Amino acid sequence: MLNKCASINSGGQGSCEEIKHMIQIYTDWANYYLEQHKSKRKITDLSVDARDGLLLAEIIEAVTKVKVPNLIKKPKTQQQTKEEKSQTKTTLQIIVSLRLMKTNMKDQ
């Protein structure tokens, strides 16, 4: 974790302890939503676990109540794993775009 702090903190923003604290807050936040969503999975290391497209999709679904479409729950090939990560990323981008549009519409 200290090496991660050094690479993350190369911009000089915050101490390693502050970064660890923020990561723990986000880990707890995600685990709370996973628990509410009745997921059997739990995040132990956010920097590693967030790379798992299926876990990221579960978090997206738990927080937003929006299903990630065409998700391959048990990918059997490397290509399916790649597609699952891509689909999760696309869904997250769509959700963010919709939220931004909704916010902009309220401002008008």
Notes on the protein architecture:
- By secondary structure, this protein is mainly α.
- It has one domain (2-6, 15-107): Calponin-like domain (Actin-binding Protein, T-fimbrin, domain 1, Orthogonal Bundle).
- Helices cover 69% and strands 0% of the residues.
- The chain has helices spanning 2-8, 16-36, 46-49, 53-64, 78-107.
- The longest helix has 30 residues, at 78-107.
- The model has no long low-confidence stretch (mean pLDDT 76).
CATH class: Mainly Alpha
Q: Remind me, CATH topology?
A: Actin-binding Protein, T-fimbrin, domain 1
Q: Which CATH-level-2 architecture?
A: Orthogonal Bundle
What percent strand? under 5%
Percent helix, as a range, is: 55-70%
Number of domains: 1
Number of strands: 0
Oligomer: single chain
The whole-number mean of residue pLDDT values reads 76
Low-confidence stretches at least 5 residues in length (pLDDT < 50)? Answer: none
Main sheet specs: none
**Please, how many helices?**
5
Give the N-to-C terminal Cα separation: 45 Å
Structural class: mainly alpha
Report the order of strands and helices.
Answer: HHHHH
Pfam families: CH
Protein name: CLUMA_CG001361, isoform A
InterPro entries: CH_dom, CH_dom_sf
Domain Calponin-homology (CH): 24-104
